[in-house]
Amino acid sequence: MQRRHFFALPGLALAAPAIARAQGFDRPFRLVVPFAPGGTSDILGRILAPELTRLLGQNVVVENRSGAAGNLGAELVARSAPDGQTLLLIDTGVLATAPALFTRLPFEPLRDLAPVNLLIYAPYILAVHPSVPAANAAEFVALARRAPNSINVAHSGVGAANHLTALMLTQAWGAELTQVPYRGGAAALAAVTGGEAQMIINGATATAPFVKDGRLRGIAVSGPRRLPDFPNLPTFAELGWPAQESGTWQGVLVQGATPAPIVARLDDAFRQALAVPDVARRMAELGAEVRAMGAAPFRQWLVGETEAWGRVVRANNIKLD
């Protein structure tokens, strides 16, 4: 995918308050993260918030609203005023899996939420607790096959994309692992670093620091290439594993009836925030790639992801209601 980079025009920061007033931005923005603090969405939101505040001329406040597998925060935005001032920053896998997981959703993702833009892609890191007697992917798969259900896999909730990825991998390995849900990626990370669980598949943005400091041992990464900070970790593709493009795809959405000019203004602000050199540097350090594509392509992409993850959910007969 071709990447586009946008940079602030001279004087834009000074003009931002006037632009905000012209578009009705007359109070602080709520940037809703539907997960607990410490996960990828939360980290990304807190990196972007100061730059968005500068660009939009109003404070942008990150608001964690966890619960119902991410749907609580998503519903809050779906039911908000269509003025663009309540935004949803979410791992889009939550929206893509929800229609198949829930018989009755209190909102319709592609009707009640308007895509603004896809922001970043961060591959998954498959990591284990240092006590696990496996130094590489081959040794770990052999261990998993040899000792069924002896390995607890921590994930961020039943039906979450990292849970479904773990199921796809274990099925391909011919192994049986015990899947243990937690309330978000941060809680799952805490479980593995604390030795309560032995394995995790989680976004590189949140997981890389734990691998760097030795609290976790990296085994493999998803995505198209090895991570620069972990050149010795092979990709799923190199290993012949499925779910090669799995990972955390972070996007921003607003209430579904938000006028197109406001969506476009927000899209521009997020693009500019991601292009700020310090933000770009921090994204790269966390293993994330900017994947901005615009509102219409983002909607089309989300439709495709909903169909693809829906097939995985149905194949594993997973329901949350």
UniProtKB/TrEMBL annotation:
Gene3D superfamilies per UniProt? Bordetella uptake gene, domain 1 (3.40.190.150), Periplasmic binding protein-like II (3.40.190.10)
Signal peptide region: 1-22
Q: Which UniProt keywords apply?
A: Signal
InterPro entries the record matches: BUG (IPR005064), Bug_dom1 (IPR042100)
Query: Which PANTHER family does its entry note?
Result: BLR1237 PROTEIN, TRICARBOXYLATE-BINDING PROTEIN
What family is it from? Belongs to the UPF0065 (bug) family.
Q: What is this protein called?
A: Tripartite tricarboxylate transporter substrate-binding protein
